[in-house]
Amino acid sequence: MIDFDRQRRNMVDCQLRTNKLTDRALLAAFLEVPRERFVDPAFQAVAYLDEDVPIGGGRGLANPLALARLLQELAIDGGDVVLDVGCGRGYSTAIMSRIAATVVGLESDAELAREANALLAGLSCDNAVIVEGPLAQGYAAQGPYDIILIAGRVGAVPDAILDQLAEGGRLATVLDEGGGLSRGVLMTKRGGTASRRIVCDVSAPPMPGFERQMGFVF
């Protein structure tokens, strides 16, 4: 039988702490949330390796370090309202629910959304909810958001999502720069305009619906 508790501790100690992950609340959340429950059963044995893991529907769960680095840059606190775009089965939603006031997970795949709601309920994530809808449109009904996470590789961030970011709010994602290169970016809204800063070199599974188009912000 696989000792997932030990694997989870090893992930935090050997992958996260050794790569400048210092946020205590974030590390505690990664220690608490069982990542193996959020992937296909066939991939549970590799859930804690430093690699992306399939979750079904052609989608993937970003490797632990990529997700952790994005979340640390977002600097989530206990008063924040968060939108988790493309939440899949809800792993990142569960992590952020341990830190933020409220987390809205947005998922376009009906089956993944159903499974995410069940998983979050089983983990008593009472301050998190999963809604179904097109990812690139965000979820304006609960906005504006202090924090927006798109934990996948995107060609661009749509204006529709940036419009849902509160003044002073922060958005993190992995930007596909072409040629096999991708980087973690942090966007901050000031005076109604979102500035962008590269924060790390990371990879992540592609997020559908975020190809470069006119009207998108690069």
Instruction: Give me the Rg, rounded.
Output: 16 Å
N-to-C order of helices and strands: HHEEHEHEHEEEHEEEE
Overall pLDDT metric:
93
Please tally the β strands and state the result.
11
Helix share of residues?
25-40%
User: Going across the major beta sheet, what is the strand order?
Assistant: 5-4-3-6-8-9-10
Stretches with pLDDT under 50, minimum 5 residues: 214-218
Span between termini: 46 Å
* Tally of separate helices: 6
What's the story with the biggest beta sheet?
7 strands, mixed
Beta-strand residue percentage: 25-35%
Q: Classify the oligomer.
A: single chain
Query: What sort of overall outline do the alpha carbons produce when their principal axes are compared?
Result: globular
What class would the helix/strand composition place it in?
A: alpha/beta
What do you see in this structure?
- By secondary structure, the chain is an alpha/beta fold.
- Helices cover 26% and strands 32% of the residues.
- The protein is built from six helices and eleven strands.
- The protein has a seven-stranded mixed β-sheet with strand order 5-4-3-6-8-9-10, covered by helices on one side.
- Helix 1 (4-16) packs antiparallel against helix 2 (24-32).
- The longest helix is centred in the N-terminal third of the chain and has 13 residues, at 4-16.
- It is globular.
- The model is unreliable at 214-218 (pLDDT under 50).
